[in-house]
């Protein structure tokens, strides 16, 4: 049973209550009367940010607790590492050579100019990650990728991100799709590195999930 998590105040009563307790000691009227107040920040805006931070932090702690029980067969992603066919600028998986299959904990890699694993080249490799996700809430999920180079994300075969081109990791790509509580979906992330530096990160968010790198405990491998 997954612990309760989310941005709704009813789900994280302790973190919300502590922030509200601290805020109650603050005199907003006095603050507003101070000369610098309005030019520096808005009390209610900052209070909202602090509440959200408390809830996100609470969820991170729950993820950390859940991760402590993870094993390779229970958590993580199926990861297939391929060497790209020489000269294939389409980075076609059917033409590439599968070199390694393993379970990765997360998609949070920065390989620099190195190879991603033994037996693979530093340039001209591509990876397919697959996992099953069963959401506890019916809502729209947004996926975020930062990759060097190209990336595609599919949810049950529906493409939500399509950036199959050379790019820098400073570019964040997003795609949103509705998920239904208790209905598992298959999520596939395809990635390639052409030349020089290589990196890949996968995050998500929803109304009840603060944006985060998807943690190990939230993946079930294929
Ligand atoms: Ca690159």
Descriptive terms for the model:
222 residues; alpha+beta; Toxin - Anthrax Protective Antigen, domain 1; 7-stranded antiparallel sheet; 21% helix; 37% strand; elongated; binds calcium ion
Radius of gyration, in angstroms, nearest whole number? 21 Å
Just give the CATH class of the largest domain: Alpha Beta
Strand content: 35-45%
CATH superfamily of the largest domain: Toxin - Anthrax Protective Antigen,domain 1
Look at the structure and give the mean pLDDT. 88
Largest sheet: 7 strands, antiparallel
- Determine the structural class based on helices, strands and strand pairing: alpha+beta
Number of strands: 12
Report the CATH topology name of the largest domain.
Toxin - Anthrax Protective Antigen, domain 1
Q: Please tell me what the overall shape is.
A: elongated
Unreliably modeled segments: 6-10
Instruction: Report the end-to-end length measured between terminal Cα atoms.
Output: 20 Å
Integer count of domains: 2
Q: Encode the helix/strand succession as letters.
A: HHHHEEEEEEEEEEEE
Share in helix:
10-25%
What layout of secondary structure does this protein have?
Layout: H1 13-24, H2 28-33, H3 37-40, H4 43-67, E1 77-83, E2 97-104, E3 108-112, E4 125-133, E5 139-148, E6 151-155, E7 158-163, E8 172-179, E9 185-193, E10 198-206, E11 209-213, E12 220-221
Antiparallel strand pairs: 1-2, 1-4, 3-10, 4-9, 4-12, 5-8, 5-10, 6-7, 6-9, 10-11
Helix pairs in contact: 1-4
The structure holds calcium ion.
